[in-house]
Amino acid sequence: MHSSSSESKRLVLFPILVVAATQLLLLQSVSSLNLTNAYLHHKCLDREGKYKPGSKYENALTKIIKGFSEDSEGFRTGWRMTAWGKEPNMTAITYFCRTDSRGPKCRSCVATASSELLHKRCPRHRGAVIWYDQCVVDFSTFMTVGMINYDDNFCMSSAKNLSDDSISFTDRLFLLDNLTKLAITEIDKAIKEAKMPVLYAAGEKRFGKTNLYGMVQCSGGLSIKGCEECMTYYMVHFQKCWKRKQGVRVLSATCNFRYELYPFISPKSPYYTKFLK
Ligand SMILES: *[C@@H]1O[C@H](CO)[C@@H](O)[C@H](O)[C@H]1NC(C)=O
Ligand SMILES: *[C@@H]1O[C@H](CO)[C@@H](O)[C@H](O)[C@H]1NC(C)=O
Ligand SMILES: *[C@@H]1O[C@H](CO)[C@@H](O)[C@H](O)[C@H]1NC(C)=O
Ligand SMILES: *[C@@H]1O[C@H](CO)[C@@H](O)[C@H](O)[C@H]1NC(C)=O
């Protein structure tokens, strides 16, 4: 649904401009990149129980969120898990930001997302996840590091079907698979002390007259193997949702992917690849 609504927005933005086809294309891609930080979805996790107002749990949540704002290192690298207390009564918050949105965008996304979860979307829930374009924030009662989340996820596909003669299912799978390979092999330039893979990749490939744009990302809490397993699971799990579709976002609390027929990540951003034929 998202790509159809963004398409209509883009068309409404410039209805009276008479421009050459190339300029129009340019405007469309610029405005689609500027669809800033949209809220996508949230899930309150009843299985992790609730806390009472004024409880230690609530206090810990508020403190962790305040602490984030003083921790610019987390926003620079785009991932953090902070926890208070011990399992099973742990108060933990994990976030990860889309790698092209590290820094100030990550900071503001995490602040908005945490506050939405805490005050509006899932008040008093010990477990909850919220997804924005640029970040994912997860409240939990246990350590999330190294764990693939198979339970909290969703698929948002474009309303439009691909025509039969255009980009095949295999083409799309191959692009996502190749992006995953890059994500687990490219070294993260923001983490200098250790050679860690960036766990993110974006790119595009031309198919005849059409470009396909893709992005994959894992939470910084996953290992290389965990990232690969998470991506593989979600590429299979939601296939019915996107098999025929022009665009999709598949999101979980630990890995995400997206493809579209229009650009949604700047080709000038880091870890972006233009695949040759
Ligand atoms: C998005 O819009 C801002 C101005 O609001 C502009 O400076 C920036 O270049 C745009 N970004 C892209 C990728 O088009
Ligand atoms: C966890 O918290 C619940 C409710 O506050 C309490 O009943 C339980 O004893 C606590 N468990 C541990 C291991 O502290
Ligand atoms: C897309 O294809 C599916 C399955 O073939 C069909 O049920 C659906 O109506 C089509 N949607 C549109 C918008 O054409
Ligand atoms: C990705 O990998 C497959 C083989 O696994 C290959 O055929 C394909 O051309 C590659 N490139 C892209 C951009 O999909």
TrEMBL record:
Subcellular location: Secreted
Gene Ontology CC terms: extracellular region
Ranges where the Gnk2-homologous domain occurs: 39-144, 157-264
A Pfam match: Stress-antifung
Keywords of the record: Repeat, Secreted, Signal
InterPro entries: CRR_secretory_protein, GNK2, GNK2_sf
Main subcellular location of this protein, as a coarse class: secreted
Family (UniProt): Belongs to the cysteine-rich repeat secretory protein family.
PANTHER family named in the record: CYSTEINE-RICH REPEAT SECRETORY PROTEIN 18-RELATED, CYSTEINE-RICH REPEAT SECRETORY PROTEIN 38-RELATED
Name of the protein in its database record: Gnk2-homologous domain-containing protein
Organism: Capsella rubella
Source taxonomy: Eukaryota, Viridiplantae, Streptophyta, Embryophyta, Tracheophyta
